[in-house]
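Pasting as-is:
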Amino acid sequence: MLARVHTFSIDGLEPRPVVVEVDVRPGLPSFTIVGLGDLAVRESRERVRAALGNQGFELPQRRITVNLAPASLPKGGPGFDLAIAVGLLAASGQAPGVDLGAVAVVGELSLGGIVRPGRGALVVAEGARASGLRAIVLPREQLDEAGLVPDVAVRAVGTLREAVGALAQPGRDDRRPTDAPPPAPSGPDLADVRGQALARRGLEVAAAGGHSLLLVGPPGTGKTMLARRLPGLLPPMRASEALEVTRIHSVCGLHDGAGLVAERPFRAPHHGTSAAGLVGGGSVGRPGEITLAHRGVLFLDELPEFRRDALEALRQPLEDARVVLVRQGRTRTFPSRTLLVAAANPCPCGHHGTNRCRCGPQDLDRYRRKLSGPLLDRIDLHVSCPRPSAEEISGAPAAGTAEVRERVQAAREHGADRRRSTGPRRLESDLAGDAAARLERAYLGGSLSARGRARVLRLARTIADLGASAAITGDHLDEALFLRMHVRSDDGAVAA
């Protein structure tokens, strides 16, 4: 007898429909799984065999063939266990009354028949809706995650026997109402950072305009503290943005299944991370850190210590806000709209310009060569973080996260209103007074590339929005140039 069960395989960030075909016929007892599955799929035979027995079912002593169609699609992971077990029970007549016609089944099985959660429940539910299926059976822990997708009934189960019962209830939907307001932003407060007025201003400009930021200073001056407080300055995510982030984290196994991700992601990979770890790749084409930081912040501490090939791999994703990978003849596209923040010491020892520095010219030159000019040119703000004074450390705290976030939100709303009223146009038309002449002098002086000129103009537009100004004045442009080129060669090896 033949049974067909709908399920899904995750390819990159996309769901791919898979039909589990189970054929049970007379012959020598055997259990074969075909369809280009990986080792985890092939090991499914033993998990299904034990789960059936421990749930009170029988493994038919017949010739059992399981095909995962289409056979040309590579499949991986243990998420096919439940579909294989249900199909086997239906094909052997042990699950009368089950309706497999328009229901997707996904989940891993333990040896005792417990249904374990896997990755990508949200993506699988989206795939079920796109395929015209009316329901999905999945582990109980992922009920809220799958329930984010409308028009698909969700049936949450804890064991194989419960899954068989759920498939016999066509109208069942375990979806729970989600009317709870989003939690208030939590995280470290910017008021904890003492001193560093210029870096705080750079952080505010970066949050208001989505600009990348490089912080350069000796160890212990607050560079990491500043970076970790940047997500709290960004406006709350819209529902569509939160769904994007939840989707990515679900596929990568970073989501706990409890509904939408409410806070913007903050990723801080170690400087030993490979190029594939940063931008994605590997044998199966997994998303990298820049995709995991989508709609949030990617923090690269000790920037010159990262591998050169890993840093160079970031150049195109930072420009295009997406990663395009070609692996084994397949093309995968991952989003990477992230705010890059990097931190670096001025020299290998970190004490450049003091009597504690022991770095020679060759050390500085070697340190400088670790960062390419094209990469630094793609970072909008280059800001120094000097050692704070004793008065700054013991003084009153500056504005906290909530106050700065209000200014950032106001700047973004001002920019949105301005674009709605004027329509799309070149930023040069916003230059007022002698701002255009100042920009031309800076460009003709050779300190800016064509890309750098465009980025300075964008910085000036953001600074003007922070001041609720419709025009870009000379003062706005001067501040943008200062924030763009504040780190000079005499500040150490890392320079704009």
